[in-house]
Input
Amino acid sequence: MDFRISEEQRAFVEVVRRVCQKDFKARAVRYLDGTWPDENMKQLAEIGVLGMAVPQEYGGSGLGILDTVLVLEEIGKVCYVTAMAALGEVGVQTRIISTYAPESIKRRVLPRVVTGEAILAICMTEPDAGTDVPSYKTNCDIKGDRVVLNGVKTLISRADIAEMLVVFTRVNKMPGAAGIGCVLVPGGAKGFSAKASYHTMGGEYLCEVVFDNVELPLENLVLRDNGMKRLLSAFNTQRCLNPAICLGLAEGALEEAVRYLRERSAFGRKIGDFQGLRWKAADMLIEIEAGRGLLYRAAVSGDPFPDPALAAMAKIYCNEMSIRVTSEAIQVHGGYGFTDEFPVSRFFRGTRYGSLGGGTTETLRNLVGRKLVEQMDLATGVLGMRTF
Ligand SMILES: Cc1cc2nc3c(=O)[nH]c(=O)nc-3n(C[C@H](O)[C@H](O)[C@H](O)COP(=O)(O)OP(=O)(O)OC[C@H]3O[C@@H](n4cnc5c(N)ncnc54)[C@H](O)[C@@H]3O)c2cc1C
Output
């Protein structure tokens, strides 16, 4: 399989890298108190990053998943909070709107995503059910040419500043998964409120969201039949983008660790001369490269959405790999690694998000395990998974 990055991709990543290294790296600590990385988002809009998932007819560049992975990886190397903010614009919510929204909403919202004026949020998690989507209680009633939405969502990123929210809700009277669909809610809608309620260990805050008799045109109900299946296919994209941030954080941590190995002395020599620490660095690199291979392969596995099992495996591996790698980077720094003097503790805290958001690693293992056990062809021994 050919993983070579094209000249265009390389050139674009180089532009992103320059901005990240020159500006974002120094600013990263500013956003640890929940401050929105506005300045960085404006720069990302200027260099074309925020329009990556927007089709060309709405002013974006309509780039693929691998392009987006490469860019998020670059931002992740320096600033978790900015990478997460960018994910909101290049990730699943933009892709759901581009794929399923009516033309009027696409024309209104998507060009503003490209310029960074429209922030998007996705509302799935509820106080009593996160992973368990079929148990969601938020409900959308259809009344003639209007819909009325009621419910509570929690742990939602940027909901208080969003121009449009993609909301998973019950959309018909069917029980369980069959009843789940999607409604698009403008941030200014009457009856909608969002409050920054939780500060995370990564730095950003998360919101509690209430829909209290929010009345909208019927066209805002974008997925009614077979909604959950279609929404979750779109989510396979997120399962490549979330690990891209983790991959970047692991790479940023390795870079810092190697720098420290070269600079710090103990027992009359540089600590990078100790074989035990060189092996640590070597193992960190091997894990990063293994994660990169799995992730890039998943990213090119399907269009518009990647293969579910490959995306799940890439996400599980990169989420867990980056926890190990960033933790080892702290170890290499000794006691200073545990302080705010060096960025490695920040990388470790940020990457802890990966295995929780966008499908927990437990539920993704369920997905991979189910395919593996249930879909093997016993006659030929061929596994029910996409393999070489
Ligand atoms: C930084 C951050 C940003 C977030 N942003 C958003 C956002 O923008 N929008 C949004 O909707 N949500 C967001 N979330 C919420 C996130 O998506 C949920 O936390 C996640 O889906 C898990 O749901 P939960 O917290 O309710 O955990 P639960 O679903 O209650 O799970 C608890 C534990 O049980 C495990 N578990 C559950 N079911 C199974 C099973 N069948 N088999 C094995 N194990 C299982 C889980 O893996 C987990 O370990 C965010 C979370 C974080 C940390």
